[in-house]
Specification:
With 553 residues, the protein is an all-alpha fold. The chain contains 24 helices and no strands.
Length: 553
């Protein structure tokens, strides 16, 4: 065999193109990622900032005296309360800043981790799954540039969040006493988010699907939260120190303002990112390190139906939300026996709960908590409905619709999974809440009451599915607007009572018309009307999908 070389003018001999630098094209890809997320990232940052600022503002109003804060500290010292919040060290000097850090860093760490995971998987594994990464790498782009751009974007998002949180708390006056505390508070969130961004960089190399990579990373977030909760509630610091969320909490903003635990987060993030780069060169583009498990030689009868196929595609999502809501309900139920001591001395919360009604403070609290769990279920419902749009844009719907499968049957299969998922997730949420509440209070009747209180929210969740289906069927490019329904429902349903939103704001939300069981008696008219509205929306969405063009590849 003869090697052919070329001799350009000047006498130099070349044998092919020069090797590309590993990070060639990083700047261009980062600008492109910022351009793609110009709406998504500001929404994430605004939501996290609003949740923190609104909570901090409510604390300054609800616990305005040292006596109120001392009472709150005593009630938060139970194992169940510590599992939901954070380490006992915060309770020693329960200022407004310490209260915010104690009760919010663990919860916000999960949300910050979720934001970081979705950023990384969206710009790495999703690009490979759709085939765009292969086209990009055919240009002058280094083999590490795409992952590096995703991680850089996650770093920028977390740094922006840290600065916004610090500035937001300074604007409320909490930082005026301890400016370093506000900066530590914001940095703790950013540090936890960076760890999970690094975790996503690894999981994106393991599996060949975006859902699989995100699911593995979210599993790590869940494990980190459980380890932290178990360690804080049981007094075992070893478990808490095994969790990145525990590291962030042990920076103790507004108490000690320690920076060295955040260095652990940065070290773990750097190690995970380095592992992601090393693993990325050990696989082919589009493939994962974990081989895809071969399927059965013949499909089951269930997979030959639209509903069976949609359920198979979404069973992991449904199982994850169901398990999470069961645990969430059990955590709330574990503290309901102490709710009189925890909230009995807070006048503003008593007034908010009194407006809900109920013979006891526990019943009013349960009604408020049901709204939170219903919003989480609504997130699943919207995700399940929008999965049809993802299948369409991925080109998989086109292949199915070229067969004898009708458009209505295909889209109806995904809709049925969303509607059934609302029932399953609410049932599990009510069951976990009821079992834990019955064990705490000794009242076995609470199990059935709380399951009924959870299930009565199902028609409102169906309305959210209907809104998403109308957008998918008639205005597919605006399908992402379906997320406005759960976001608005959470803002007015949970924060509205405490922050005294006008009554009309609650009437716009589907959850605003749900009977507030167990605090109020059952009223059948609102659920029936909500069901009728959901039916109209679903029919409208299905009809719109039949009349529009299907996106093809």
């Amino acid at each position: 065999m003869t090697t052919v070389t070329t001799r350009p003018a000047g006498g130099a001999t070349t044998a092919g193109p020069a090797p590309r630098a590993p990070f060639a094209g990083l700047t261009v890809l980062l600008r492109f990622a910022l351009r793609r997320d110009r709406v998504r990232l500001p929404v994430w940052l605004a939501a996290l900032l609003l949740a923190t600022v609104a909570t901090a503002d409510s604390y300054t109003a609800l616990y305005d005296s040292p006596e109120d804060r001392a009472t709150a500290a005593r009630t938060m010292a139970t194992p169940a309360a510590l599992a939901m919040t954070g380490p006992r060290r915060f309770l020693e000097d329960y200022t407004h800043g310490a209260m915010l850090s104690h009760e919010m860093i663990g919860f916000m760490g999960v949300l910050t981790g979720l934001m970081s995971v979705l950023i990384v998987t969206r710009h790495t594994r999703a690009e490979e799954e759709t085939g765009r990464a292969e086209l990009i790498r055919s240009a002058v782009v280094g083999r590490h540039a795409q992952l590096a751009a995703a991680l850089c974007l996650a770093v920028l998002a977390n740094l922006a969040l840290a600065l916004l949180l610090a500035a937001g708390l300074a604007g409320l006056g909490i930082a005026s006493v301890d400016p370093a505390g506000a900066l530590t508070y914001g940095s703790a969130h950013a540090a936890a988010g960076l760890v999970f961004a690094g975790v996503a960089a690894v999981t994106a190399q393991i599996t060949s699907s975006t859902r699989g990579a995100s699911g593995l990373a979210l599993g790590v977030i869940g494990a980190a939260y459980v380890l932290r909760a178990a360690g804080d509630s049981g007094g075992d610091d070893a478990l808490s120190w095994a969790s990145p969320i525990g590291w962030a909490q042990r920076s103790y903003p507004f108490v000690d303002d320690r920076w060295w635990p955040l260095l652990l987060c940065l070290g773990a993030a750097a190690a995970c990112a380095a592992a992601g780069f090393l693993l990325s060169v050990r696989r082919d583009v589009g493939a994962g390190l974990r081989p895809v498990r071969p399927g059965r030689a013949t499909a089951t009868r269930a997979l030959t139906t639209p509903f069976g196929l949609a359920l198979r595609l979404q069973r992991g999502l449904l199982a994850g939300f169901g398990a999470g809501l069961f645990v969430m309900g059990a955590m709330y139920g574990s503290i309901i026996g102490d709710i009189e001591d925890m909230l009995g001395g807070v006048e503003q919360i008593q007034q908010a709960l009194a407006e809900i009604g109920g013979a006891t403070l526990a019943e009013s609290f349960a009604s408020m908590v049901m709204v939170v769990m219903a919003v989480v279920s609504m997130v699943h419902v919207v995700m399940a409905t929008l999965r049809a749009r993802a299948e369409e844009t991925g080109g998989r719907a086109e292949a199915l619709l070229t067969t004898g499968l009708s458009r209505t049957a295909w889209l109806g299969g995904h809709l049925a999974v969303a509607l059934l998922g609302a029932v399953v997730t609410q049932l599990l949420a009510g069951l976990g809440f009821g079992l834990a509440a019955a064990a705490t209070t000794g009242d076995t009747a609470m199990t059935g009451d709380l399951i009924a209180a959870a299930l009565v929210h199902v028609p409102a969740l169906w309305v959210a599915a209907g809104v998403a289906l109308v957008l998918v069927g008639r205005w597919p490019r605006a399908a992402a607007l379906a997320w406005a329904v759960p976001l608005y429902a959470f803002a007015v349903g949970y924060l509205g009572e405490i922050l005294r939103f006008p009554e009309w704001t609650n009437d716009i939300s589907p959850l605003g018309h749900v009977p507030e069981l167990p605090a109020a008696p059952m009223a059948w008219t609102p659920p029936l009307v909500l069901t009728l509205v959901a039916v109209v929306l679903c029919v409208t969405g299905l009809a719109g999908f039949r009349r529009r063009d299907v996106e093809t590849k």
